[in-house]
Amino acid sequence: MTSAGAASAETTGESGPVARELAGGVLRLTLNRPERRNSLSEEMMAGLQEALDAAADNKAVRVILLRAAGKVFCAGHDLKEMTAARAHADRGRAYFTEVMNRCAALMQTIVTHPKPVIAEVDGMATAAGLQLVASCDLAIASDEARFCTPGVNIGLFCSTPMVALTRNVSRKQAMEMLLTGEIIDASTAREFGLVNRVVPAGYLAQVTAKYAETIASKSPLTLKIGKEAFYAQAEMSLSDAYAHCAQVMVENMLARDAEEGIGAFIEKRAPEWTGE
User: Fold this and answer.
1) Euclidean distance between CA atoms 195 and 84, whole angstroms
2) Percentage of the chain with pLDDT > 70?
3) Between β-strands 117-121 and 138-142, what pairing exists: parallel, antiparallel or unpaired?
4) Distance between CA atoms of 112 and 228, rounded to whole angstroms?
5) Percentage of the chain modeled with pLDDT above 90
6) Which of 26, 71, 112, 155 is deepest in the core (most CB within 10 A)?
7) Quick check: 273 pLDDT over 90?
8) 220-234 helix and 256-266 helix, angle to the nearest 10 degrees
9) Does pLDDT of 212 surpass 90?
């Protein structure tokens, strides 16, 4: 599943909840609990949070690729852990609050992360697992991937997954998924805008690697500036968005990497990025 350059890959945490492999500027984070359907258990969320936090200031990391071991990408929250908390005196209120807050923080870490995050989805992504996909900057799915927000089927509306879902697809499409709890296939997910591309399962790793390598070849500073501005302007009025992005462009133009990139373009040579 690794691309060219994997010979010099740095691999850590293979036995933990999140396996890590860094090669050619691409950090591959693999949800590594297939026997638990890669659910967002306490252990899994902690593992992902730690890996993402560590990557933020790691200059060797240009792009993060999020994938999963086994046939399920992510089945959402660990309902057995959640159910066990009902035995507490407060019927689990404090525990449920902590879990939801930690999950929200994790999703926001992805959105605000200085490095682009790409989801490589093969298999089922449900509830908070779908939320994980929707929170990533890009999502590439195999033709065998499936998606749903099934909480309504068990008396638990997918309210937090709804936050990420409604920032990817139209309101009508989001409500269709949330109200019915039905599974949609990868083609429908692309039609809805939940994923960028759908490819044959046998080519999924190859295609996502190409996306990651292409993005990793860009200026890391430019990627950070652009990603931050993208999400900031999306929440603004039209006039505020233009004012904000105009200032972002000014600051970006003053960056050494912009000076180098424009110079390289004019001189017809490859740019040498410094991240400054």
Assistant:
1) 34
2) 95
3) parallel
4) 7
5) 92
6) 26
7) yes
8) 110
9) yes
Give the separation between CA 5 and CA 22, rounded to whole angstroms: 10
Alpha carbon distance 157, 142 (integer Å): 27
Asked if residues 47 and 74 have their Cβ atoms less than 8 Å apart, the reply is no
Instruction: Evaluate if pTM is beyond 0.90.
Output: yes
Structure confidence at residue 276 as a pLDDT band (50, 70, 90): confident
Q: Are 229 and 240 in contact (CB under 8 A)?
A: no
Beta bridge partners of 67: 30
User: Do residues 152 and 181 lie in contact, with contact meaning Cβ atoms separated by under 8 Å?
Assistant: yes
Report pLDDT digits (tens) over 18-30: 999 999 999 999 9
Q: How far apart are CA 90 and CA 64, in angstroms?
A: 39
Place of tokens 């992504």: 125
Rg of the chain taking only CA atoms, in angstroms = 20
Number of neighbours of residue 191 by Cβ within 10 angstroms: 14
pLDDT in tens, 96-112: 999 999 999 999 999 99
Give the Cβ contact number of residue 262 at 10 Å: 12
H helix runs in 30-158, sequence order: 42-56, 79-84, 93-112, 128-135
* Per-residue b or e along 102-126, where b marks 16 or more CB atoms closer than 10 Å to that residue's CB: ebeebbebbbebebbbbbbbbbbbb
Amino acid at 231: Y
Cα gap 237→218, rounded to integer Å = 29
Cα(190)–Cα(169) distance, integer angstroms: 10
Identity of residue 213 = E
